[in-house]
Amino acid sequence: MVYVVPESEVEFSAIRAQGPGGQNVNKVSNAVHMRFNIVASALPVAIKERLLASADTRITWDGVFVIKAQGARSLEINKTEALARLQEAIELASHVPKRRKATKPTLAPNNVDLKAKPTVRRSNRGAARSRSSRCEQQHSQRHCHPGAA
Questions:
Q1: Cβ(58)–Cβ(66) under 8 Å?
Q2: Could you tell me the pTM of the whole model?
């Protein structure tokens, strides 16, 4: 469901725009400061929470979304641009992120990986040379412990 922001929930104020514009920029207030109170709005609770939890710098501590639009020389065009930016932010917040399903790899690939590791192969080589394994191999010949017989 796409939530459309009614203009009654938005507060506009005309301000002087920055940048080029000749003499007209000093005379006419054609930039728009738009304020939208997220907490007091009729947005669904889930969208409000996601908007307030977002790291957007345009949201104040009081939960007010502030947008400044000054791209055009017309006040009406700047108003529609500010509303479009607000609508885009609300649509992004209305998208519910997919929950990650935790998975566990099977043991077979793990064991194959371990056997391929050089350190494991080296430790097996040392174990093969140990005294106890030699004793088991040469047990019938009784050369393992001279003087023990």
A1: yes
A2: 0.59
Task: Mark out the alpha helices in 15-139 (DSSP H runs).
Answer: 24-27, 45-53, 75-94, 107-116, 118-128, 131-137
The reply to whether 16 and 63 lie within a common domain is yes
Residue 120 has pLDDT above 80, yes or no: no
User: Which whole-number Å values give the CA distances from 106 to 4, 109, 111, 112, in the listed order?
Assistant: 48, 6, 9, 11
Task: Give the three-class secondary structure for 42.
Answer: coil
Q: Both 25 and 76 in a single domain?
A: yes
Residues 52 and 123 in one domain: no
* Rounded Cα gap, residues 53 and 63, in angstroms: 10
DSSP SS3 for 138 = coil
More confident residue, 116 or 80: 80
Q: Which residues contact 51 (CB under 8 A, 6 or more apart)?
A: 38, 43, 59, 65, 89, 90, 93
**How many Å apart are CA 26 and CA 86, to the nearest integer?**
28
Q: Which of 1, 88, 76 is nearest to 36 (CA)?
A: 88
Does 81 score more than 70 pLDDT?
Answer: yes
